[in-house]
Amino acid sequence: MKKLALLGGEKAIKTDYSEFCKWPIITKEMEEKVLEILRKGEMSNIELTKEFEKEYAKLYGMKYALCHNNGTAAIHSALFGLKIGKGDEVICPSMTYWASCLPVLSLGGTVVFADIDEESLCINPDDIERHISEKTKAIIVVHYAGYPADMDKIMAIAKKYNLKVLEDCSHSHWCFYKGKLTGTFGDVSAFSLMSGKSFPIGEGGIMLTNDLEIYERSIIFGHYERHSEITIDYLKKGIGIPWGGYKYRMHQLSSAVGIVFIKIFKEIFAEIDKAMTYFCDLLDTLPGIKTHRPPKNSGLTKGGWYACFAHYDKEKFDGLSITRFCEALRAEGVLSFPGCNKPLHLHPLFHDIDVYNDGKPTVIRNSQRDIRSKVGELPVSENIGKKVFSIPRFVKFDKGVIEEVFSAFEKVVKNYKELLKDDKGDPPTLGNWGLTFRV
Ligand SMILES: Cc1ncc(COP(=O)(O)O)c(C=O)c1O
Description:
Blueprint: H1 28-40, H2 47-60, E1 64-68, H3 71-81, E2 89-93, H4 102-106, E3 110-114, E4 136-142, H5 151-161, E5 164-168, E6 176-177, E7 180-181, E8 188-192, E9 205-209, H6 212-222, H7 233-236, H8 252-283, E10 289-291, E11 309-312, H9 322-332, H10 379-383, E12 388-390, H11 399-414, H12 417-420
Parallel strand pairs: 2-3, 2-4, 4-5, 5-8
Antiparallel strand pairs: 1-9, 6-7, 8-9, 10-11, 11-12
Helix pairs in contact: 1-8, 2-8, 3-6, 8-11, 9-11
């Protein structure tokens, strides 16, 4: 048996595999297009952005697309588009990045957290209904780490209670749910397009909708440069300055990258899918490990495989902490970290911080009832950090390299008993508020 690197043995990985995971992919054509915009001094124009929007909307078969300077802004606009305002309750999964729901508070609304499904890491549809009140106006769905949420059940609940649906597709570019693209189910969808995402064009975000009013409300909110396009009377009355007081225009260096990436992304995603399917098939042969991906032939696909994770079954490792397990992997040369996004309902901002000096916590400033979730109320979101860990995301298929990285997992799994002796256990919480992994 080979000795684990953490215990002084030789590293399983000899190759520097970072080249095979390097993201984003920047092509010569992108560089030239960016330079063209720079040289023309058209960074703040919107013609190229509009071209990109047209292409993106066409790709998704949607009527309207509106670019924003980031995904957070796209979500903020989308919520304003949905008329979320004072006292409105919006249901959101607790385990997500903060931008999925924090703009609700900025609009005077209230966030009510639901738990996630342990398998998909997306909102658990069976936990939505108990959070619905007469004030509930919308559900935010996050297709977490590219795993499409259970849209059949979610849309049925939305229909039953007449609720709006906002899909946060920041992790799910070109992901399909039973043959239909995520981002085309709800009333509106928002995508982050920042450099780490599967559709990386630089800082940027895009909102999609088929609803003219949502689209024009988003324009009035943060896109004063497009106010002349507005057709709806009550909005037309107030054109010229943005109602939200925000300037959400995306600069055209991002549009330049986007206009090229949109032509090539399917080929890139196919390569990622090939590489990750091969890698995950190997990982799934190991006892105690199950990669985070929809079942094969389910009609659910992972698009660009943003943020790759695997489930860790501690029982199968005689209680070995996920912290120690990942430490051993890193010693072998694999960049793996325990945890995912931390549960938002446990952050002080969703308990007692008075952001706007209202004399009461912002989270309930306009609420008739105390919607704050206590520790223990959303158990899956609270405990998931100790049950999942990040795995490398290969964007290039190389059988040998993938097998070499896999050999490190295999070695740690086979030798886990050696790690039990000095296992200090897991810290009380694992994961991050953002998806940046640190040791
Ligand atoms: C789920 C989710 N929603 C929204 C955002 C916000 O996007 P951006 O960083 O472009 O503002 C992110 C970004 O990390 C995200 O992961």
